[in-house]
Amino acid sequence: MSSNRKRLPVGGRISREVPLDFTFDGRKLIGYRGDTLASALLANGVTLVGRSFKYHRPRGIFSAGPEEPNALVTLGIAGRREPNLPATTLELANSMDVESQNRWPSLAFDVQSVNGLLAPFLSAGFYYKTFMGPTRRAWMFYEHFIRKAAGLGRAGTGPDPDRYEVRHAFADVAIVGGGPAGLSAARAAAAAGARVALIEQDFLLGGQLLAEPSDSAAAAWLRQAEAELKGFETVVLMKRTTAFGSYDGNVIGLVEQRDPTGPKPNGEARQTVTMLRARSIVFATGAIERPMVFSNNDRPGVLLASAARTYLNRFAVLPGKKIIVATTNDGAWRTAFDYAAAGAEVTVADLRAVPPAALAAEAARLGVMIRAGTRIVDLHGGHAVRHVTLNGPEGQSSAACDLVCVSGGWSPTVHLTSHLGVKPVYRDDIGGFVPGAFPAGRLGAGAMIGAYATADAIEDGHRAGIDAAASGGKSAPVPAPAKLDLGDTATTLLREAPSVGHGKAFVDFQMDVTTRDIELAHREGYESVEHLKRYTTLGMGTDQGKTSNFPALAAMAALRNATIPETGVTTFRPPYTPVAIGALAGRAIGHHFKPIRRTPMHDWHMANGAEMLEVGLWMRPYFYRQSGHDVNEAYVAEMRNVRQAAGLMDISTLGKIDVQGPDAAIFLDRVYANGFAKLAVGRARYGVMLRDDGIVFDDGTTTRLAENRFFMTTSTAKAADVLSRLEFLLDTAWPDLRVAVTSVSDEWAAMSVAGPNSRAILNAAFPALDVSDAALSHMGLLESGWGGRALRILRLSYSGERAYEVYTGATAGEQLWSRLLEAGRPFDLKPYGVEALGALRVEKSHVAGPEIDGRTTLDDLGLGRMAGKRSGFVGDVLRRRPALRAPNRQRLVGLECIEDGKRLRGGAILFLPDEKPYGHGRGRITSVTFSPERGHYVGLALLAGDVAAEGSEVVAVYPMKAETVRARIVSPVFLDPQGERLHG
Amino acid sequence: MASLTSSRDFSLSVADCPLIQIEGWDGTLRQFEKSVSASLGTKLPASVGETVRHKGLLIIRIAPRRLWLVLDEGTQAPALSVDPDLGCSVPLGEGRVRLKMAGPDIARLLSGCITVDWHAPAAAPGRAVQTSFHHVSVLFLRTGEAACELIVPRSFARSLSDWIADG
Amino acid sequence: MLRIECPCCGPRDHDEFRYGGDASVTRPAHDDPDPEAWYRYVYIRTNPAGPHREYWQHVTGCRQWLVVERDTRNHAVASVDFARKSTLRKSPA
């Protein structure tokens, strides 16, 4: 097969001086700069491009755009492998490796095309009945078979080495579509003074004008329009860019392909998703030609008429020499004329009894044969077309041909406007759906609103451009656009009722839905379009039924004897064309997946053996490797050291809020369940906040720095929620309170020195400070400085030991940390991580996230005394609801493991010893630790109050590991119930 | 100030950000502003996003009743005492970092970071925009035709500067 | 993407905001002891298909709590105001 044997020697918009090598299923082929993969394949005489989804029927190239249902290919190798790309939208580039899909062992000889014989299994409703009906279990049987047989391409499994980006952009006017209407709209909007973004999915501007001969008046108009737009500094031309979704707030989602033929500078994104925010949007998305329905209408060698014209005039490809043009309208005649002029033998089969005289005259001039009132009913051929059966006034006849061009009219491309909830409405005069009423800031222009003639589209775009600019306040005078009259008319359309021969007649090529499937759906009562869609999978392919939607509606309307508007239309949803997940993720993968928060001492931890743990966005030391060879060994060693000597913990992640103002004390009195108004200056207090519904919200300590100023801490996890809630209360509930709340979480480095040696360590670190118990008692505050830096020492304990929280400015955090470690060396001060911290607090029964889980009340947690008889605080009234005080409500208990060599696990379900372990049980374990003090595992649990008597036994079941262990209910304070160690 | 990345088209550096936040109470805002204005010896930015530059001090209105006083490097903090009946102040300079960016490629790079329209009047030189950058609250300061700063929380600074440098 | 025009910061993407629920319910006084009043405030919602007043906080911006009137059927935003009832300055831009 000689290369480019179907290519014409002159013409088209390709650069014959730039040949491009590519492979298709390993075969080396040559195309030219300016080709798509589809045009290059056709030029090389490749007609068989893929196999169909269910029946593995041979398929070729059907269209010249993103509506392509058949010619889906896989591009690239290894991690770059990308499946299901329409060959019609792939810009040809050097060294492109392309594979056909859904065939085995080869495209030409496919074993599973016998699926055609098993067709009854795969008919409409197969999935529906299998999944939903009483035969649901049959799926188990079918699954293997179906998964092997039905399908599209396979993605690569390796990491994709390419880079993807997400960007944000703005424009006064966004114009979707660079055809005559869009170009005209862009020029008008720019001339009116607006900043314009013109979005075109193709690598060339022009839309349907590109189907016109490259030496025509249309081509001249296009050159002038593009030059004019380039003259505006305020116009951004976004080629190779598809608007895939249209969203609220006049936002459109765009995905841009890198120029595959250009240089590939290191790091340039292969695809860029842009979220474009526009004051107004002009949708000039054009229209998509419809196929015709007849037997074997899916065979390679059947092309949409406009696509055939595009291949001829834009790509200089003559895919056939003996051509049947089957049409219901005027437009396809232009394809017939151009092919005749290019030397092909052409017959037009027009469904209309009397085609327009002007067309007939031109046909006679060019030697085009006319068969009026005639349709194709059957097509013969396998991998290529051989002949068709025609049915007309003179009965059935056979006609030999090597290319069939079809046009069942046009469907305006209303996908993007449907995304916004603009319902399509049917226009009988054009036989298609156009968008209904647009909301403010959105306009339509050109074929997408039914202005099919080029001259009308230009005029229409001009008006839309001016209006769009004006709605953003830009209304400089705009000169009239250059006129272009191609003599194309608003199409006259005869709605076609399908008429078929013996073979399958396809409505949805990609999903292999035939007229018989629609008949079946109708027979079984799935008549509404939404049911039809789900029952037959019509329109559910990667092409979203761009070519199939209308023919299916027409077929169903005919079966129901209803009109098209009565039959209705399905809703289109984003994306308009498939978008790779990688493109949507952009740079937010790997270490950029989410932002990481680092404490001021982060680098020290990394350099000193810390195993880090992600806690929300924060990175925290989990344990230090020098403490033990794994976490279990390390945390026990670290907590022992705290209990026996002293430990140093980075607590900078605590939420910290500066609360100031004349009414700060009143405010805190209302937001905390326990009182703060009477807290003395220089003293700290543990506080618990409730939600309005009476459930515990968060806890922390708050210190009174001055009469009108408090320093609040929150849990690490709830910091943002608490601040926002405080602001909510101040802005909406109590605006009369003069209080300011500000996050100072990032402002302070914080570390806890805990253990019996902690006071001695502070003494050594700050010899000038008096940290005696008299000067700094439990829950006391010392404010001072060190080396010109702020220093705040709070005597607070989370571990149950004598402990101090030491704060300094974030920029000095690491210095202070090192200074404390240095001073603490003689006192065995060692850093400890969050696992040890968690264990220490469990031993002391301090509740944390696992207990404050959004379901527990103060009473559940044994904290009821804190509120005492107070009232008037958030959540007070609803916490008194009877249901929250039911005797069998789960409340906090301590558990200790009473089986040697076994352990407790967080999440285990609790049952009574004589009870069958089934269902939700009586409660659950929330937190556990090995207790070096006790010599076995202990834990906190939430257990039904009516079975929670201390001393009784429960069984803890952990189904994930099939573990069952006996535990005894004990006081949750496992260590030092009198709190003497706080002062030790 | 430390340089993180530098090329012909773009440079990124990081610096500390001495900063004081002041806030006036609702109801006595005018008196508060009058007193602050007198104390600083300059008018205050009138609306959110406006800035006023005065003697090594950049005053930014970041909320209707809230102002940030950002100090140039090496500048002494102004002697400012806020009447507690009118408002309050809180230092925030330890917890913020300035990421300084410049170069002809800046608008493209920034479009991969924040949702700010580089060409809009609200982002013109001298304007400030509070927005989000990879889910983090940041303050965008337009400092020149091809220059800007982001004031970001210190804990997120490295994550965010890495993101910019990879753009 | 919902865009909300903050009264002092201008139009912004919804991900700069934190949703705060129904703004048409009346919060009882902090010391109101009536369980019925609190029950209605916390739990009773009209859930309209149509205009809905709701709280949003411009959390990565000026941190002001706003009352947004949004049509739940099509996300059209009819008005945005500060939740705090005072004479706060709006941005001229």
Characteristics:
heterotrimer, B: 167 residues, alpha+beta, Gyrase A, domain 2, Alpha-Beta Plaits, 2 domains, 6-stranded antiparallel beta sheet, 5-stranded antiparallel beta sheet, 16% helix, 41% strand, elongated, C: 93 residues, mainly beta, Folate-binding fold, two-stranded antiparallel sheet, 10% helix
Q: What would CATH call the class of the domain at 164-287 and 414-471 in chain A?
A: Alpha Beta
- Please list the strands of the largest sheet of chain B in the order they lie side by side: 1-2-8-11-10-9
Beta-strand proportion of chain A: 25-35%
Briefly note the CATH topology name of the domain at 164-287 and 414-471 in chain A: FAD/NAD(P)-binding domain
Count the DSSP helices of chain B: 3
**Biggest sheet record of chain B:** 6 strands, antiparallel
Task: Give the name of the CATH architecture of the largest domain in chain B.
Answer: 2-Layer Sandwich
Are there runs of chain A of 5+ residues with pLDDT below 50, and where?
none
CATH hierarchy, class of the largest domain in chain B: Alpha Beta
Can you tell me the CATH topology of the largest domain in chain B? Gyrase A, domain 2
- Most extensive chain interface and residues per partner: A-B, 42 and 39 residues
**CATH superfamily annotation of the domain at 164-287 and 414-471 in chain A:** FAD/NAD(P)-binding domain
Binned, the helix content of chain B reads 10-25%
Gap between N and C termini of chain A: 94 Å
Mean pLDDT of chain B: 95
Rg of chain B over CA atoms, rounded to whole Å, is 16 Å
The number of distinct helices of chain A, counting runs of at least 4 residues, comes to 23
Which secondary-structure class do the elements of chain A indicate?
Answer: alpha+beta
Oligomer classification: heterotrimer
